[in-house]
Amino acid sequence: MPKSLTEWLQHLETLHPTGIDLGLERVACVAERMGLFENPIAKQVVVVAGTNGKGSTLAIADAVARGHGLRVGTYSSPHLLRYNERVKIDGQEIADQPLIEGFERVERARLQAPEISLTYFEAGTLCALWCLAQESLDLAVLEIGLGGRLDAVNIIDADVAVVTTIAQDHASFLGTDISQIGLEKAGVFRPLRPAILGSESLPSSVADTAIALAAPVYRLGLAFSHSAGSEGNLLWCWHGLTSEGDTISLDALPDPGLPIDNAATALQALAMTGLVLTQKATQNALAQVQLPGRMQWLGQWCLDVGHNPHAAAYLARRLPAPPEGGRQWALIGMLNDKDADGVIAALAPRITDWVCVTLDGERGRKADELAKRITAQGGRVHCCADSPEAGVDALAPLLASKDRVLATGSFFTVAALLARPLPQAQ
Fold first, then answer.
1. What would the pLDDT profile of 78-118 be if each residue is shown by its tens digit?
2. At which of 286, 307, 337 does a domain end?
3. Could you tell me which residue ranges the Mur ligase C-terminal domain spans (predicted)?
4. Which of 49, 315, 423, 426, CA to CA, is 20 to 30 A from 121?
């Protein structure tokens, strides 16, 4: 068997003929062999599905639960710089050794007769669940990777299930019908267990699925909501329900720097676990939430992993204008299964100059193909580069002190930039 975490991750890439193979039969069988169904992985489990906002909702739920004294474990994907980012215990990335032990457990179970083939994500999910189960957690918060109903994380029956938003993404796997995408995402709901709907514009198929399961539905704008505080945009208020059905309000909450819809949804999900939310602990937690790669500012550079039109539109609304006389650059690299035209259209009103970069790999997209789409919409492309790093080098001598740069389009684009120093004009 492999010895190091790096060797294990390389080994996982050889286990299955395709990178994505939706379905639960194989992964559930290996989980049963591992004993993952014998006991809950935590006292309470929350799963978070949706097109956008999953990472924000998970990060806020994690921070607020820990702020109330709970021992919390999380699983999310993909990672930016280190695989260890995918599993966190009390806010800290898991060490290599527990992951290695987890992969060994997965491999031994997988190789039992009859041998079962697993994708990289499936093996990683089983490893993460095993690691979390060793930690005596009060709460586990699990992010659904793709879809919901057939995602490997959905082998776990959650105590509370969240759907954040529904938009088109991963069209080659989930299709383009918003109602059908909603059905797939709502596959994380369970009979009689709370279903949290984190957007006011979800397709009816999401709530209909919950109702058919007799799952109590808590919808943003109805069961819970948020409003501006006395200090305008600087503070906000949350109004929701406790697990006993009583109304609760928390005032003077700080802006976590993430979508407030997601923050309100996270609070409602935690309330449904039975956690008694207090104003002081919630305020402190929201003031300290951090989520790399989501409107993350590094000097003149704003890094955001948004990769579909819905995320790009939110980003465009929140992106501050550069100082007077400065240009708003965009360094963009996208995968070929993403709606590049929709992303470009959403960002175009805010961008003066573009740099396109190539992302390599099976799903990669060439920079010149992106450039043609941008110019077709009237955008000005300064250059194309063979990689995100090369794009940074090409942009560096063009930057003025009043310029700002948005780096976006993919986790891969942002990860490449986080791994290196970014030039700052003097």
1. 999 999 999 999 999 999 999 999 999 999 999 999 999 99
2. 286
3. 293-411
4. 315
